[in-house]
Amino acid sequence: MPLPPMMESSPTMAKEMVVRHHLLPGPRRTAHNMSSSSLRKRSDASLVQKVPCTALRALLANLNEVLLGTKLFLLFPAVLLAVAATFLHFGQVWVFVLSLIGLVPLAERLSFLTEQIAFYTGPTVGGLLNATFGNVTEVIIALFALRDGKIQVVKCSLLGSILSNLLLVLGTSLFLGGVANLGAGQPYDRKQADVNTGLLILGVLCHWLPLMLRYAVISGEHAVVSGDYAALDLSRACSIVMLLAYLAYLFFQLKTHRQIFEPQEVEEDDDDLVVSEDEPVLRFSSAMIWLALMTLVTALLSEYVVSTIEAASESWELSVSFISIILLPIVGNAAEHAGAVIFALKNKLDITLGVSLGSATQISMFVVPLSVVVAWTMGIPMDLDFNLLETGSLFLAILVTAFTLQEGESHYLKGLLLLLCYAVIGVCFFVIRRRADDNNDGVHLDVGVASSSTNTDAS
């Protein structure tokens, strides 16, 4: 077995990696792994091998693999520019935009590094790493927003990620895949889709219950024991149930029914769309260090995004809700979304469904309840009541997606319908404005001049 270039400079390291590679099975190729690998490229190590110093050669080999081993490497300067814009006071809008752009390659590199670590930990731990770091950007943004007390930003950004995966990503993939494969069938395995949609329905039920409880108490139909904290207590209980369901889902996915989630095998093409890795290119210690570093940089840019979102909202005259629900998910998950579309063009819809539905399920059943539990420990009253418009949009998105995927075969019209649903929801959140005196416990919407004038005439 040939050794990666960076291993040749250290016989001890090479021996260690070869032994561990043979003792442990390689990481199971998940849909998320394959989606990210579609944006990778083979780095040229010929110049690195000419460096005489062994330590410097190993360092350059690491930099070559981590920073240049992706087709998104041109976006890495945005990370440095975002930091520079912060310290040089270029303006909060510039910091917001550059931070969003910088998060795109970081998300793809986090997926690459977790896959490298999985070579040493085995497929089960590797799957848990993917379950943890698959949506690390959303988790970090949510934690910083909670720290600043921006509960609505947390709710809207997580809701937007789910809607984006279900309608925008899946819709774009099915539409473009259908156009590119008009003369061919587009089958997919319904079993994975059924599992994910079932969990998503459970998740939206946990969102509906606090909402319905609030309206039932206001209308006087029911009385509650815990008073003003009834919805909060119910949300925390539902969050624990959702986390337990997610743990059961991981056991189902990684142990008992892992064959359902095995992606289709994809052969490498001449255009190098997919870079498959049969052996690690980084040492375990190097991968861990890079993973910690990339996570810290992601946390830094996420903090910039949270702290400057109001400035961007005022500058662009867009509501924070619209930016959080529409713009943040589109940019933050651009790398993963691009991978899903690429595999749809190659008529590998099982991988596309694994990416879009898997991400939506992970956010709905893990990130959202985790945010509620973390807020609970911080003494912050975040609940699962996402308000009527947001929860209704989520329910209808899941319903439309479930009906779209019930046949086991796709065509471009299904993708177009999902995209149109996303467009309508986007317009809805574009026209609403939250009042400046809103707090996190209630939402009041101004829906236009017409309604204001009607109320004035009525008075």
From TrEMBL:
Instruction: Name the Pfam families for this protein.
Output: Na_Ca_ex
| Gene3D superfamilies in UniProt | NCX, central ion-binding region
Listed transmembrane segments: 72-97, 117-146, 158-179, 199-217, 229-252, 287-306, 318-345, 351-376, 388-406, 412-432
Main localisation, per the record? Answer: membrane
User: Which Gene Ontology molecular-function terms are recorded?
Assistant: calcium:proton antiporter activity
One GO cellular component term noted in the UniProt record for this chain: plant-type vacuole membrane
Arranged from A to Z, the UniProt key words for this protein are:
Antiport, Calcium, Calcium transport, Ion transport, Membrane, Transmembrane, Transmembrane helix, Transport, Vacuole
Q: How does it sit in the membrane?
A: Multi-pass membrane protein
Q: Where in the cell is it found?
A: Vacuole membrane
Q: Which GO terms describe its biological process?
A: intracellular calcium ion homeostasis
InterPro entries for this protein: CaH_exchang, CAX-like, NaCa_Exmemb, NCX_ion-bd_dom_sf
Q: Which residues form the Sodium/calcium exchanger membrane region domain?
A: 93-254, 287-428
Q: What top-level branch of life does the organism fall under?
A: Eukaryota
Can you tell me which family this protein belongs to?
Answer: Belongs to the Ca(2+):cation antiporter (CaCA) (TC 2.A.19) family. Cation/proton exchanger (CAX) subfamily.
Q: What does this protein do?
A: Vacuolar cation/proton exchanger (CAX). Translocates Ca(2+) and other metal ions into vacuoles using the proton gradient formed by H(+)-ATPase and H(+)-pyrophosphatase.
Q: NCBIfam families annotated for this entry?
A: caca2 (TIGR00846), cax (TIGR00378)
Q: What is this protein called?
A: Vacuolar cation/proton exchanger
Species whose genome carries this gene: Oryza meyeriana var. granulata
What is the organism lineage in this UniProt record? Eukaryota, Viridiplantae, Streptophyta, Embryophyta, Tracheophyta
